[in-house]
Amino acid sequence: MIALIGLITLTLVAVAAIATVMATNLFVASMWFGIFSLLMASNFFILDAADVALTEAAVGAGVSTVLFMGALALTGEKEAIRSRVSWFPMAVLGVLALALFVATFQQPMLGDPMAPVHQHVAPWYLEQTPKLINIPNVVTAILASFRGYDTLGEVIVIFTAGIGVLSVLSFKPKGRQSVSSEALAAKVRGVQHHSILRVVGKLVIPLLMLFALVVQFHGKYTPGGGFSAGALFAAAVMLYGILEGADRSAKAMPEKVMLRLAVFGATLYTSVGLVCMLLGGAFLDYNVLWPDPVVGQYFGILLVEFGVGLTVTTVLVMVFNAFANRPTY
Amino acid sequence: MTLLGLYNYWIFILLLIVGLYAVLVKGNYVKRMIGLGIFQSAVFLLYITMDKVEGGTGPIMQGVPEPGQLYANPIPQVLILTAIVVGIAVTALGLALAIRIREEYGSIEESDIRRLDHES
Amino acid sequence: MMGTIFDWLSGLLLVAGGFFVLVGGVGVIRMPDLYTRIHAASVTETLGTMLILTGLMLHSGWELATFKLLAILVFLLFTGPVSSYALGNTALLGGLKPELGEQDPPKEGRES
User: Fold this and answer.
1) Do A196 and C75 touch (CB under 8 A)?
2) Do chains C and B touch (3 or more CB pairs under 8 A)?
């Protein structure tokens, strides 16, 4: 029965993707992209991946749509229609599709317990997590402790993308006057004539932030963790920016403070690893943080996930403020 | 039975082709970023398809695990969890570049930009 | 016996909720313009969601999951109608005119 629902959701995902690419108005395309991401999130849930579904729903259907809207407000919404169809890329795509289609017949069936991917490392992780780390959520245990070094690299990549956006957008074209965002905001602040939206939105924002904190610190016991919590908290700040005006959200979360907090998040992660080295273990070996190794793992995962959540939140909020407060030239 | 078992992989191929088509053929830079996002989601679908085990639950251990209990494979979920957030950060960087190109050239269509580059 | 009554009741609520959601879907396809479609989708969807969530709450009994479902229900009751209002209001402000039928001419002979 679940397989039938999975088939239907997958077909809807394919339809949404085709509709996204065929739309010529880019606002319509970004709305379809949000629908596509939400259907993907429900598909991930049907395939038993709860953490991934939560993160994809928050990032794809929430944060990503707002960022695309912010960029489209500055670039323009119509796409030029090309008249001639180029055959060389279509031929390349056709050959690629054919090759992949032939290769799928050697793949294991969906859900096969004897597939090679379930044989080597996964049973070891599932057995050793109750003994070595003793937290219920195995995904968080692997993310923060067994494969903690990879996660450190990902946090540094997110931070680099954030400062990349800030440095690209710090250039202003020379010799042109800008319609400043303060002048625009003085005329219409946010969605101020939609009072129903403002009242209900302001009720939702503290609940969303509380939920983000629950997901962050309860990530050892339920699906969640630093990445989902960061995206949810950033979504709450974006909601405030949409309702009250982007200049208010830039004043509430100023860029300098966000930049310093992002640096602090990445540094917290690295310094937990260095403290482990100073206490006699290897880099990011949480066993030495406390006399009892299991409690040491608990503390290590807590601090590391907090660093991750902090960096993700501040980078996404910085990017949103940079897009939304950019004056139109 | 083959249809049900392999349907996920065929949808993955379809999404891959749709995303690559948007990146290769369309001229608008924001449309290309959307196509890249579809391409990324297709790869996520492939990884998460590999983790499902028939009769297993999500990899959250409630209490003492029974000996016969099957769990879904947790490793692809770990990889994709970080990849989703990294993907959105890189998409944001691409959109910032598109904004700057628009401010300098006046449009974000590739044909216009090539023409302006040739003329100058 | 109470268990069986609850099971039957929750099954009935789930089927009724599914029926309303289906009616909403058919309405979105068959209605002529945006405003009637918003009306069809939002009214039936709110009722259908309430019935489905109540059926699930009856099915799970006195567990923690019941309170989580109640919280989801309250949240959806807040945000569902507000989002349809926002959609309709923005469409009206953006200039989309609703398709109206034949209007009666204003009545003559009114002395003020």
Assistant:
1) no
2) no
